[in-house]
């Protein structure tokens, strides 16, 4: 099909419910009040020429190309800045307008190189299109040389800036301001001397505050800002709408193709999670799918000290099935298990847990989602009756107070972070929302250009429950609770019991200040703001869940929302920011050892009967093993075989040496992934996976939004991941016969009440659906608990603060907490194989100047990071973003293996690891530890691949 860009209506859509009728070029049109004349014309496919206008940005009115004539009005107003009026009669094309537009366009062209045939934007250039639209065929003015001598800025690895082609429309500046909120770009000079600058005159795009989100590239109407991939490959000739495979925001993109070659990923303006915005990962970091290190053929080996042998799919699957069946026959079904992936589709995840339960015969299935967000499922299910967030992302537009705890949206969920920043800046015309940040580290939201938190509660890591209990103490004792809401919507007796508990003097901010290290007056002010500031919404992340009291913290958050009535409408709620793209979906699909899809316990006989009848097998009623239990059992000799799809537990799980010991003790480890990851060092079978660009399916984002993933190219390995899992099941004799992922979704829908109304056809037609989608909610549920909680009455649960067992002391006096950075993703398997490593090529240890001075450490020095579990080395970054006594690092790079120092302590309810609190010592070092050197050598030997030619000769 012919490539067509998305329609551009010139100015944003009006939200008014009042309708206005006018006439444009003799045709009547009815639009909402506040709509611009330009957009009204576009609604009836009347295209008014424009250059500075685009519907992702507010009206600007600078290019003077969109002039119109209006009966009864003098002059020629700009249609982009002129709102419609009842009875207005508009003329968009007259001889006078034609003359004016040609004159304006001549001025633009006189300062623009006429190299269209060799320009990267040829055929995809708005200036070129508009010159044709106004009928310009010659230019009377001499070409100015103002910009022609300026050098290209090629510092950014993904796009170039060519000032010679700039028409000073300011769209890139406005996109950086209005869409991204970074304000990295400015306009310098006037008239023909006007030019775009990335900050100071000496700055380039790479060295500036630019975060490479691509909003400026998207907005540019010429080839001034253009992707290098477009210049190298050419303009696209077709596009497929799909969903990003990075974080839990779930951005929708147009994968724009030339043949089977991906040219660029353009954020889809109709994407309901991202509204046409993107971040550096989703927009540009897709090159890993074609990376040279990707494994595209199956490999096997008898033991992990041998090199890999490349084999056919039939041989690899037969080898794996034989080993699994032999283990089951000798040691029983409980000796086998599987791990699902939050990076894979719902359909693929569902098949893996089905393979474990129906094929292996055990409930030994777990997921990385438990390692990050299982306390969310437990805590919200206990209090509200459902295991997911309560709002859609757009709900933040109605928030008056935003409380961010244990999350860093601008780095980990950047597109939603930009959305939140727009509300905090008040650019929608309303007063800016107030902001409370609860985090031991000074994240960007605490203070950055044009944003500053009203309160930053820089708590001591591990004291979340104490801080939230102290906030509840203020709300209850100062009479700020919403009693009417509580009496109507919650269990009153449980509330009174909870209120009595939080009112105790021992739970006051003053008493707990010694524990939390948050000044009492700061905490009291934050509590009052949350309770009385209007619509108050809570957003939280892994800094809440990855603690020994993770579930208690989620419950404490839910308690606060119920106590203040901040639940069940727009602008409020409890909103977990899921880490990976399909964390929500992998939980929904039954990836936990104690739950089937839809969060129904495996011990429930009636639920189990539904699956047994559909699958034709008998399911064991007892919960299976979680990942750490599998590893323990492997060391003991009772767990022998593991199938891991799309996860790297050796890098992402805590206490790496324990993980390695468990994997090494198994008879058969099957890794199904794109690359030879760290876990594959201990694998016997490697099944090559497919990227999100090579398959169909669905992802479910953090707002419960189910969206289609569409195949845009043929899988390099020959099969999509769901086909690989099906092939393994059939090699074991299960006889599965799915022809397409839509059939798997049909099975999910008939077995899972919250997905009952979901199908590929509906998703294709409607774009997305937010579960529950069923008879009670046929169109989905953007906002949960509107008229009542899923469980009936909201339940208050007492959350007593219990200090973690991980203690600081003379040997380990500092507390380590971990997190993510914008340019890298999770364990870095994808982003490390892109140019994103230019921004973050190694993990660094952030340490406060006081702690650094005590240890003689300077920025850039090698330091040893030691804990009771292990030690590693990395470079130091001296910064006051962390408090004295706290150090921080990321976990994106395997040569650091930060999780070698994290402990086995975990959440009391879900075993979610306590990544965020580790007692450590930091000291000067001169290079890698012995453990790192040994690990590197073991990894190098483990990744040897025997030459195929030598194999054949033998």
UniProtKB/TrEMBL annotation:
Domain 2Fe-2S ferredoxin-type: 18-96
Organism field: Sphingobium jiangsuense
Domain 4Fe-4S Mo/W bis-MGD-type: 237-293
GO CC field: membrane; oxidoreductase complex
Stated name of the protein: Formate dehydrogenase major subunit
One annotated GO molecular function: 2 iron, 2 sulfur cluster binding
Entry's family note: Belongs to the complex I 75 kDa subunit family. In the C-terminal section; belongs to the prokaryotic molybdopterin-containing oxidoreductase family.
Species classification: Bacteria, Pseudomonadati, Pseudomonadota, Alphaproteobacteria, Sphingomonadales
Domain 4Fe-4S His(Cys)3-ligated-type: residue ranges: 96-135
Keyword 4Fe-4S: yes
Gene3D superfamilies referenced in this protein's UniProt entry, alphabetically: 2.40.40.20, 3.10.20.740, 3.30.70.20, 3.40.50.740, ADC-like domains, Dimethylsulfoxide Reductase, domain 2
EC id: 1.17.1.9
Keyword annotations from UniProtKB, A to Z: 2Fe-2S, 4Fe-4S, Iron, Iron-sulfur, Metal-binding, Oxidoreductase, Repeat
Classification via CDD domains: fer2 (cd00207), MopB_CT_Fdh-Nap-like (cd00508), MopB_Formate-Dh-H (cd02753)
Pfam families hit by this protein: Fer2_4 (PF13510), Fer4_Nqo3 (PF22117), Molybdop_Fe4S4 (PF04879), Molybdopterin (PF00384), Molydop_binding (PF01568), NADH-G_4Fe-4S_3 (PF10588)
Residues covered by the 4Fe-4S ferredoxin-type domain: 157-188, 201-230
Keyword Membrane: no
One of the GO biological process terms: respiratory electron transport chain
